[in-house]
Amino acid sequence: MFCNIIYTSATLLYLVYNNQRSKKVLTGLAFMSIVLLILATIYFFVICLWMFFDLIKERFVVHRIKSFLESEVSPE
Predict the structure, then answer these.
(1) What's the angle, vertex CA 69, arms to CA 67 and CA 70, rounded to 5?
(2) What does each C-alpha distance from 9 to 3, 50, 53 come to in angstroms?
(3) What is the pTM of this model?
């Protein structure tokens, strides 16, 4: 999805540059490409944060739960 958004915005910018029709069409296409790039950036950061928190969950939270359960089960 991220690559599709970047590809679409690059295509729109290319069409704007090559066709150079009326200013209204150019403004609309440029605005749409900027919106798509902003959405791609937000999507990229959300995916990075999701992977980062998943890594933290795997390394620390699961380890703490396992150690807590092992200490509860083991005889004192």
Answers:
(1) 65
(2) 10, 25, 29
(3) 0.53
Domain boundaries, the chain: 2-73
- Full DSSP string of 8-64: HHHHHHHHHHHH---HHHHHHHHHHHHHHHHHHHHHHHHHHHHHHHHHHIIIIIHHH
Q: Which tokens is 44 given?
A: 């990229």
pLDDT by residue (tens digit) across 23-71?
Answer: 777 777 778 778 888 888 898 899 999 999 888 877 787 778 888 888 8
pLDDT at 76 over 70: no
What separation in angstroms does the CA of 28 have from each of 23, 35, 55, 56, 66? Answer: 8, 11, 41, 42, 55
